[in-house]
Amino acid sequence: MNDITIITPTYNRERYLPVLYKSLLEQTIQTFLWLIVDDGSTDGTGQLVAEWHNEDRIQIQYVRKENGGKHTALNTGIGMTETELIFIVDSDDYLPHDAIEIILRYHGKYRKMDGLCGYSFLRFYPDGNVNEAYFPKDEWIDTYVNARINTGIAGDKAEVFYTDILKKYPFPVYDGEKFVPEDLVWIQMSGPYQMVHINQCVYISDYLEGGLTRSG
Prior knowledge:
Blueprint: E1 4-10, H1 17-25, E2 32-38, H2 45-55, E3 59-64, H3 70-80, E4 85-88, H4 99-110, E5 116-124, E6 140-142, H5 144-149, E7 157-162, H6 163-166, H7 183-189, E8 194-204, H8 212-215
Parallel strand pairs: 1-2, 1-4, 2-3, 5-8
Antiparallel strand pairs: 4-7, 5-7, 6-8
């Protein structure tokens, strides 16, 4: 039984997806589903994922849609998710080997607490340095707005959300617009819900040229 769905929206990232795939193979806990939402790629992404699916080393689900931007791919993936947790991981990034283990450990501690929408963990760079800043205190419970915007904590973090909460806040879709920042939704959830901000790294951001992380 899967505990968490890793959603990866992707567009023409056949070249970089194998790095993420390798990091998922190396996870110390394998109770996750990797949901790849192909936003209309024109490269060999579909064939590559089919090969991985046939290897049957981890659980993979693949869906292809018409190109509409990352936010529309996320809406598709979130709508399909049935696990308790969602972890959005861009196609040009990857995870440390114990990422899922760390996430589930903290979820076991806090899952019964009312008023939470999820967890915010650290991202590191490939050289092992933290992405901009640590949280001023570990396991800090506050809203996204208070913890990140009002305190001026810069950099990207790694958010893991409760699926049932995230489904209440779909990304808005505008004609002709293919980029909607994820913060737009995180801010909407801030107030009604809090997050646990945790000084543990579960995500490596590589910021490759033309990638989702860098362009975002």
